[in-house]
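Schema walkthrough. Field components (list of strings):
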Amino acid sequence: MQADDYLLIEQYLDGTLAEREKTAFAERLATEPDLAAALREREAMQRYLKFESQKDALAAQMGLLGKQYFGGDSLEHGNAPSEAKVRPIGQRWWVAALAAAAVIALVLLVFNPFAPKSGQQLYAEYATHEPISLTERSNEAPALAAAETAFNQGDYERAYALLKEVPGSPQSQFAQAICAMETERTAEARSLFQELANGSSVYKNYGHWYLALSYLKTEGYEQARAALAEIPKEDDYLFTRAQELLKALP
Amino acid sequence: MNQHPDHQYLLAFRAGDYSKLEELYGSQARTVASWVVQNSGSIADAEDVFQEGVIALCQKAQDESFVLTCPIGALLFSICRNKWLNRLRKNNREAEVRKAQAVQLPHENIVQNDLEAVEEEAIRQQKLDKAFQQLSPLCQKLLRLLSAGATSQEVAEALEMTNANTVYRRKNACIERWRHLFQSAKI
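Field assembly_structure (string):
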């Protein structure tokens, strides 16, 4: 860094450098980490000023949405939440207990977890998809690798398109079915899950499980119950979840 | 890493368009609220960390070199989660922190890189803010005007300076002061 490099940075950002100076500056950036760091710092300052000018609009929008989605003022200034702030539980345990009761009452008021949840809510709660790994047993397909990445990033539309192109192992069929379900291709998803459920691959029980989830989406609770009932006790993990979900069904 | 389709949210935020925020509230407010409440917080706490999380996201959105590689909802949730864990830590609630951390989240791995980038920027911007607040009112005004796109001539008139040249010199002096304050700031 030289003394007037900061001025050079200003000119570079203002776009007032001549073409030749610009090229020379860019070359120096590549070889002088100090200069590059100073430029990044100056850019962060620019971002600060730009964001500052938008802050009011953002605050206004968050104020509106906060009221709508968090209950807004009544919650912020009501009695219960201030008691419920984080604080160590000391000897005055009953204050904490009261506060906890207040929070529970409040949560019940707002979310009421004991009220029957709709299929959509249950779906959102239970349909958490574990990351998949499609490529370790196959070397043929870059498409599979791309599908795996897309799936694990939650980009189901793209993963669906890619998986449609590859011949199906049970594994990729399973992934494709989840993608179909997540992209509102419910009928197709169901037939794929049904196929897995009828088969004998390791995805058999997942087939039942996901079939049930797909019915939650459309509020077909009877079909969901039937599918959940197919999951055998031996499958500890899914069985537990299935029992839990059965209890939560409206 | 590839750009995630949700990158479009960042582009909107960068342009100062916050109409898409409602979708984020719609998809994440409830999740964050119930997680915070499950982990010893109140709904008001949840709203606090949610707002802080949204601000951190919008700050990072200003960075044109940043590419979102994961679903924005999962990222926002992770930002909020870390913010709440930090508050618990500050209040010496280590046991609750450990309990919360023991639960593996479905998107933990895919959000990791973007999460770090957002959190780094948040710290940087917080330091910049602290330093900026220590500048003279004249410096603050001058830098804001220039950033909003005013010409040197317009700034000279608004701040009653002799000419555009004075504005230019003052600007460089203000920037230098700001930089100095920023570099010596501790957080």
